[in-house]
Structure formats: structure tokens, C-alpha cells
Amino acid sequence: MSKTKTLIYCGLFTALIAVGAFIKIPVPVVPFTLQYLFTMLAGLLLGARKGAFSVIAYMVLGLAGLPIFSEGGGLWYVFKPSFGYIIGFCIGTYVTGKIAENLRKKTVLTYLMANLAGLMLVYAVGMIYYYIICNYVINTPIAVWPLFLYCFLLAVPGDICLSLLGAVLAKKIRPVISQYTIPQPLQPISLHTEEN
């Protein structure tokens, strides 16, 4: 894929992730948005490196001051406990994309497994960051059980549903756009010419 096409596709997913931040479903502690759906699709459709690049670009733009995070933007956002989930999105997108790239059978089920692997990393990084910021940086202590309840148990069912939706979408969309987003193997060039 050319550099121009790469930038277009990565920019498109960066924009979708930003839009997803403002599609909110109110739940306590950590706002539930559609960001995860678009970060997951970035990995599935663009591949590990390009998908992760899209998420990193989103994170850098938000930290630079653009109000594209769910509650604003700017460097101060690193002190928000929920910022860990944005870091988790970068890692989760890469892992989801890497697994999807190496799947022998690309089915809804195998895409779902890739999504869930990435999702668990998003939650692991997000919850650890949340705990550290709350307890050691901003002095608003949270115990392990409330953290697990609000940041995992209440939130994960919705994200599992998004994982399934993403797997279905990837199964439908990936064959169509993979010729533009995923490098194709080079065809051998024949050195023989037809004789007249």
C-alpha cells in the first residue's frame, strides 16, 4: 500500500476513534464509549502496525490539546485515571491486528478470539493505570474490589458485545478492503516470451 493510502486509512480510523469517544453510554466511574469498537476494527482491517499507528495518532493529538478524548484533551489528561484505557487501546489494537494477520482461518469466531485477546489487554492496562493514578498520584484511593466491579464487571459485557459486532463487521469488510490495506504477495514474473 502506498504511503498516501496508508495515511488516508490511518487518518480515517483516527477520526473514527475520536468520534467514538463522544458516543457515550453512561456507566459509573469509566465512561463507556464506542472507541473500543473502532480501535479493534483498526487492528482487524489495517493490521497490527497501521492499526496501532491510528490509535497512537489519536492519543498524540489528544495530548497535544485537541478535545478528542471523552472528557477533553491536553497533557493534563495523563493524570486522569481513565487515560490508561487509551494506552491499553494502543496495545490491544496491535495485538488484535497481529493475531488477525496470522489467522489461518478467518472466521467470525477467530476474529472474536483476536478481539477478546486485545480486549483483555485493554482492561489489564486500564485497570492497573487507574489504580496507580487514584492511589498514588491524585490521592483518591480506590480499593481492588470496587475497581474490579466498576472498571471490569460493569463495563466488560458491553465490550464483549462490541467484540462480536467487530468480528462480524471484519468478516464482511476485510475481504473487500484487504487488497488496499494489506500487502499482497508479489506474483512471480515470467521471463519466457511467447513465440510467434
What structural keywords apply?
single chain; mainly alpha; Arp2/3 complex 21 kDa subunit ARPC3; 7 helices
SSE layout:
Elements: H1 3-20, E1 24-25, E2 32-33, H2 35-46, H3 48-63, H4 83-101, H5 108-136, H6 144-153, H7 156-181
Antiparallel strand pairs: 1-2
The residue ranges in which pLDDT falls below 50 over 5 or more consecutive positions are none
Task: Compute the number of structural domains.
Answer: 1
Rg over C-alpha atoms, rounded to the nearest angstrom:
19 Å
The strands making up the biggest β-sheet line up spatially as 1-2
What portion of residues is helical? 55-70%
Mean pLDDT: 88
Tell me the fraction of residues in β-strands, as a range: under 5%
Question: Can you offer a commentary on this structure?
Answer:
The protein is mainly α and 196 residues long. The chain has a single domain (3-181), classed as Arp2/3 complex 21 kDa subunit ARPC3 (Orthogonal Bundle), CATH 1.10.1760. The protein is built from seven helices and two strands. Helix 2 (35-46) packs antiparallel against helix 3 (48-63) and helix 3 runs antiparallel to helix 4 (83-101). The longest helix is centred in the middle third of the chain and has 29 residues, at 108-136. The mean pLDDT is 88.
Could you write a compact summary of the structure shown?
The protein has 196 residues and is mainly alpha-helical. Helices cover 66% and strands 2% of the residues.
